[in-house]
């Protein structure tokens, strides 16, 4: 049925304890490129194939916090694992709903988003042998697991002692984040395995030279970010959000790395706070250059600009600089200026799917730590540089589960985060 699967050649020795675990609850935490998700996917396929060989129908549930992240993550990961075992062709895949099913026995992998909990709760899969929560740090609290675990436990397959649960995640920077604290509380419980890993545990050569080059570049640029991203350490947040040495100042666009696309991103304020529109060029080498931006601050002005005036100002600014914009990004909560601009110029700004502040900051840290962000040292960018320099965490919130930033003069900072968050795939950033 399947080609011979050599565990020693496909699973690093560091994960032997995970592969042989007899515990119902297994938490795998670690840095990027530690291959923890790959190990879980291989184990799930391996376990399903053992039952299929006995002509038993069994099922596995795979869960992400947000359903629209399934297609390009766990759905592909399970298909990859099936290929490793040489059985991909005997499984059918569907995307509505996301399912990978064995044609002969009906055994299947079912994929769900926790954001559609009622659908998940009401879907009786039955014959379950395992459940996998991928990117578990994206969930809001351990209570979200409790809500679904009880449902899954009742649907256990008759020929397994228990439904086996897996969690995989990269630890957040904040030591006080709920998942960091939760894992510490269960670490000594007899039914839990807490396993830690990083790329340094690779003994089989899965970490390629290209990966190592990227890791070492981040290690040289921002050592704390390297510890967080690749070693999986909760390094803390510090006080200043950004390391300004990673904002590479340049006087002009390099001749050997021309701009191939330009993006606009807006954070609007209208009556009481500033409106900022940043323009970002993406180069042939996939670097990012902040070219400049429009900035209007209504503070101290008796007559404030209306959305119709801001719309015209922004359009005139982009036209004067001959910026041909590939994508317009704006705060998804913004309505007035967004509608006005489409009315005036027939251009729709895309409302960014905002994440929590810490997540959006992590996205920008990823870009910065790779040494790929540059700023033209011109007058237009001085407000941006000044606001990024002053951008700080609220000290009183640092030892809480939900740290906040000081919300003063942060409009250019916000639109920078919106640009990055709305273009993660284009910028080749992990999401």
How far apart the termini lie comes to: 35 Å
Helix content: 25-40%
Shape summary? elongated
Protein structure class: alpha/beta
- Can you write the helix and strand succession as a string? HHEHEHEEEHEHEHEHHEEEEHEHEHEHH
Strand order of the largest sheet: 3-4-5-2-6-7-1-8
**Count of extended strands:** 15
Radius of gyration: 24 Å
**Major sheet:** 8 strands, mixed
State mean pLDDT (0 to 100 scale): 93
Beta-sheet strand percentage?
15-25%
Residue runs with pLDDT of under 50 for 5 or more positions: none
> Total helix count?
14
Features:
8-stranded mixed beta sheet; elongated; 7-stranded mixed beta sheet; 431 residues; 33% helix; alpha/beta; 15 strands
Account of the 3D structure:
The radius of gyration is 24 Å and the shape is elongated. A hairpin with a 4-residue loop joins strand 11 (275-283) and strand 12 (288-296). It has helices at 7-10, 16-19, 36-53, 74-85, 117-122, 142-153, 178-186, 209-221, 223-230, 307-320, 336-345, 357-369, 382-390, 411-422; strands spanning 25-30, 59-64, 91-95, 98-102, 108-113, 128-134, 164-169, 192-197, 248-250, 259-267, 275-283, 288-296, 325-331, 350-352, 373-376. With 431 residues, it is of the alpha/beta class. The chain is built from 14 helices and 15 strands. It has an eight-stranded mixed β-sheet with strand order 3-4-5-2-6-7-1-8, sandwiched between helices. 37% of the residues are buried.
């Amino acid at each position: 049925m399947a080609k011979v699967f050599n565990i020693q050649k496909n699973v690093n020795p560091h994960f032997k304890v995970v592969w042989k675990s007899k515990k119902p609850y297994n938490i795998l935490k670690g840095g990027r490129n530690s291959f923890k998700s790959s190990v879980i996917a291989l184990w799930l396929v391996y376990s399903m194939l053992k039952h299929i060989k006995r002509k038993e129908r069994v099922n596995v549930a795979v869960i992400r916090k947000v359903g629209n992240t399934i297609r390009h993550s766990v759905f592909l990961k399970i298909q990859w694992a099936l290929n490793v075992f040489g059985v991909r062709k005997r499984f059918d895949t569907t995307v509505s709903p996301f399912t990978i099913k064995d044609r002969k026995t009906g055994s299947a992998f079912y994929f769900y988003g926790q954001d559609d909990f009622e659908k998940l709760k009401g879907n009786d899969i039955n014959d379950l042998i395992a459940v996998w929560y991928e990117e578990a740090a994206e969930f809001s609290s351990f209570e979200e697991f409790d809500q679904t675990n009880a449902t899954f436990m009742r649907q256990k397959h008759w020929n397994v002692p228990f439904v086996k649960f897996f969690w995989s995640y990269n630890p957040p920077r904040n030591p006080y984040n709920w998942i960091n604290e939760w894992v510490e509380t269960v670490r000594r419980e007899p039914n839990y395995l807490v396993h830690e890993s990083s790329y340094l545990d690779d003994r089989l050569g899965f970490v390629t030279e290209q990966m190592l080059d990227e890791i070492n570049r981040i290690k040289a640029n921002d050592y704390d970010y390297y510890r967080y991203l690749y070693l999986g350490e909760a390094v803390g947040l510090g006080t200043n959000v950004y390391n300004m040495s990673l904002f590479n100042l340049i006087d002009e666009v390099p001749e050997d790395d021309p701009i191939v696309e330009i993006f606009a991103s807006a954070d609007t304020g209208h009556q009481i706070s500033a409106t900022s529109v940043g323009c970002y060029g993406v180069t042939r080498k996939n670097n990012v250059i902040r070219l400049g931006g429009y900035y209007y601050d209504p503070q101290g002005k008796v007559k404030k600009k209306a959305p119709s005036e801001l719309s015209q100002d922004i359009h005139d600014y982009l036209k004067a600089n001959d910026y041909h914009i590939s994508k317009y990004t704006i705060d998804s909560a913004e309505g007035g200026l967004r509608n006005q601009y489409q009315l005036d110029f027939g251009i729709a700004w895309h409302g960014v799917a905002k994440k929590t502040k810490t997540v959006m900051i992590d996205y920008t840290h990823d870009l910065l730590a790779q040494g790929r962000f540059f700023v033209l040292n011109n007058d237009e960018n001085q407000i941006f540089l000044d606001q990024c320099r002053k951008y700080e965490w609220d000290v009183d919130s640092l030892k809480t589960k939900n740290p906040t930033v000081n919300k003063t003069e942060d409009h250019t900072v916000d639109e920078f985060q919106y640009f990055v968050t709305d273009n993660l795939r284009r910028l080749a950033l992990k999401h």
